């Protein structure tokens, strides 16, 4: 009974924070101090007819699957077709063109949609854009980290919260900045997008590819900082896979470990196995807990009740997640926009 009362109290806290007035103290925690909800594969037309509707959904995280197409030298957006586009991003560059143009566009058009939507909603809460690089980067073909940065910068300009913003001209690495909790207040990130990158499923299964997105972008950040050009970076690489303890020590060279402050792993693996997730909140790292529905007891992966979503958000906030994701696109904006205090 005590556990049920505690869960109810946490769910109530989630609701209170979600509806608190913009100038209230409850609405001004740091980005690292909250837990919010995201949508897996938000580019899927079965979830949202247009990507602008995914942006409308209230979700704090939207995921895109991106292929570096070396034949066309373009960034494709699709679940399983590396040479074509299959998505809800439309050929819309202005607010008036949204919700009606042809879909199945490339990554640049997805960014155009975001820029147009941002004009309509300049005060929107921060949205994390999780990009799975399905086959990784291909720098030799002109589809490397620097070209990624350039495209995002051209399309979204100052509406992107960058690694240099976290460093603030004060800290020598992202790790140092995170441990000092240099994250801005959530309210100060209104109108902003934050990009994080994970290695893709195709890349990970390629026996000839041993230099994945995470390591490549980590090297990119280290080298940009060393050359005095860190301000050009537009994304944060994420450590992929739930682990107990600090997964960076066994995966990366010591020179790039401090450039990882985003972590991404299966929620059920973290929680059901009793992993020490307090490590992430203690260091003010951003922890993305995927497949939130799968934590025991499992709930619907597509359309759970509002109460089940609130309880799952509270449970994973208690387990130190920053963002939780599932395929809950059927839920209302009032549910998907819920934000609570991270333990």
3D architecture notes:
By secondary structure, the chain is an alpha/beta fold. It is 33% helix and 16% strand. The protein is built from 13 helices and ten strands. It has helices at 2-19, 51-56, 107-120, 145-156, 163-167, 174-179, 201-205, 213-226, 248-251, 267-272, 278-282, 306-318, 333-336, and strands at 34-39, 61-69, 74-77, 127-133, 193-199, 236-240, 262-266, 286-290, 323-326, 339-341. Helix 12 links the parallel strand 8 and strand 9. Helix 1 crosses helix 12 and helix 3 (107-120) packs parallel to helix 4. The longest helix has 18 residues, at 2-19. The two termini are 21 Å apart. The model is unreliable at 1-16 and 18-25 (pLDDT under 50). Residues 1-26 form the signal peptide. Keywords: Signal. This is Calcium-dependent phosphoinositide phospholipase C. It comes from Streptomyces cyanogenus.
Largest sheet: 8 strands, parallel, barrel
Q: Could you give the count of β-strands?
A: 10
Overall shape:
globular
Binned, the helix content reads 25-40%
What is the arithmetic mean of pLDDT? Answer: 93
The sequence of SSEs as H and E is HEHEEHEHHHEHHEHEHHEHEHE
Helical segment count: 13
Biggest sheet: strand arrangement: 1-2-4-5-6-7-8-9
Helices and strands: which structural class?
A: alpha/beta
How much β-strand is present in the residues? Answer: 15-25%
Evaluate the radius of gyration: 19 Å
Distance N terminus to C terminus?
Answer: 21 Å
Unreliable segments of 5+ consecutive residues: 1-16, 18-25
């Amino acid at each position: 009974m005590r556990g049920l009362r505690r869960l109810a109290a946490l769910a109530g806290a989630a609701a209170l924070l979600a509806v608190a007035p913009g100038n209230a103290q409850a609405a001004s925690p740091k980005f690292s101090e909250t837990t919010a909800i995201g949508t897996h594969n938000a580019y899927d037309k079965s979830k949202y007819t247009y990507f602008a509707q995914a942006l409308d959904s209230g979700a704090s995280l939207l995921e895109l699957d991106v292929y570096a197409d070396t034949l066309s030298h373009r960034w494709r957006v699709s679940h399983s077709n590396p040479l074509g586009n299959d998505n809800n991003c439309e050929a819309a560059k202005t607010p008036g063109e949204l919700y009606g143009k042809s879909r199945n566009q490339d990554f640049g058009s997805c960014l155009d949609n975001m820029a147009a939507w941002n004009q309509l909603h300049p005060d929107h809460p921060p949205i994390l854009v999780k990009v799975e690089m399905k086959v990784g980067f291909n720098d030799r073909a002109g589809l490397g980290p620097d070209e990624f940065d350039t495209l995002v910068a051209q399309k979204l300009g100052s509406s992107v919260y960058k690694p240099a913003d976290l460093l603030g001209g004060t800290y020598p690495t992202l790790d140092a900045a995170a441990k000092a909790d240099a994250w801005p207040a959530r309210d100060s990130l209104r109108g902003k997008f934050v990009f994080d990158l994970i290695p893709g499923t195709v890349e990970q299964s390629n026996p000839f590819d041993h230099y994945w997105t995470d390591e490549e972008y980590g090297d990119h950040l280290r080298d940009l900082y060393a050359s005095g050009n860190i301000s050009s970076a537009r994304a944060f690489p994420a450590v992929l896979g739930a682990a107990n303890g600090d997964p960076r020590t066994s995966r990366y060279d010591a020179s790039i470990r401090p450039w990882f402050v985003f972590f991404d792993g299966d929620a059920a693996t973290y929680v059901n196995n009793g992993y020490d997730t307090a490590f992430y909140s203690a260091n003010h790292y951003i922890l993305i807990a995927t497949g939130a529905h799968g934590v025991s007891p499992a709930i619907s992966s597509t359309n759970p009740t509002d109460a089940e979503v609130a309880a799952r958000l509270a449970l994973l906030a208690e387990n130190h997640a920053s963002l939780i994701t599932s395929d809950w696109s059927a839920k209302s904006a009032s549910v998907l926009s819920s934000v609570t205090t991270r333990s």
